[in-house]
Amino acid sequence: MKIVFMGTPEFASTILESLARDSNIEILAVVTQPDKKVGRKAIMTPPAVKVIAQELEIEVIQPKDKEEIIEELDGIDADFFVVVAYGMILPEEVLEMPKHGAINVHASLLPKYRGASPIQESLLHGDKQTGVSIMQMDEKLDHGDIHLVRRIEIERDDDLQTLTNKLASLSAEIIPTALNDILGNELPALAQDHSKATYCSKIKKEDGKIDWSKNAEEIFNMIRAYNPWPAAHTEFNGKKLKILEAESSEENIETGKFILQDGILKIGAKNGAIIPSRVQLEGKKEMDVKDFINGNKQAIESQ
Fold first, then answer.
1. pTM exceeds cut of 0.85
2. DSSP string for the chain
3. Which pLDDT belongs to residue 228?
């Protein structure tokens, strides 16, 4: 089976590695986003998929736009394009290039959470379950017929990083067999119920700012959904404080107020409070909340 793999982040790189290990699959090329400047020093950084592809000695293509994708892939002899969080909506001309179409691995239970941030969305909503949908792509966003769905439970201590890792491992486990079954007409595709579709947008840095007038459980879910990026944050003593891990409680504390109670830091929200366990103060490294308390006890108590 000959495929072209299209993907960009770490989530996709896990699936690329799985496909590369399958002796029945030949990866003709890997298509990924261009290198980008990252961090305060603006260091040019390759996507995670490019790093893995180069380690596997697979040709890497990094088109700047849709026209360049068409030009680069024109005439390529592939059974499938396998698309995983590539980061660009593909034109119909590209989707029609492979003999058996383009297959997308999407990290939600479609038609729920179509779009760029399905894992964050499931955490933000406090969902108890999520999963992976393997679908035949069409020209609309996450709209195509579904070949396979696999579900997993979301644990209360899951955050964006842990849930992404779980879904990447699940996807990597099922995609080689799914492709073989699709090729052999053993995995028919069923239309989505488009009337039940919900959508999520790309996460922005400013989405991480905590509104303490929200319910404590909403803020707790936000902390989970935005760890490690953009990280749920608030202002403390004139500096940005990222709350990386926390729990919620039903205690009644003034909204937005930091208090120390028996050595435990609590921050008031609507209908409850947030109890941080790991934080990062602007200009400092990530730390256990006890270390934060020890270094800022006077500032907390003087609020």
1. yes
2. -EEEEEE-SHHHHHHHHHHHH-TT-EEEEEE-PPPEEETTTTEEE--HHHHHHHHTT--EE--SSHHHHHHHHTT---SEEEEES-SSPPPHHHHTSSTT-EEEEESSSTTTTEES-HHHHHHHTT-SEEEEEEEE--SSTT-SPEEEEEEEEPPTT--HHHHHHHHHHHHHHHHHHHHHHHHTT-S--B---GGG--EE----GGGGB--TTSBHHHHHHHHHHTTTTT-EEEEETTEEEEEEEEEEE-----BT-EEEETTEEEEEEBTEEEEEEEEEETTS--EEHHHHHHHHHHHHHT-
3. 93
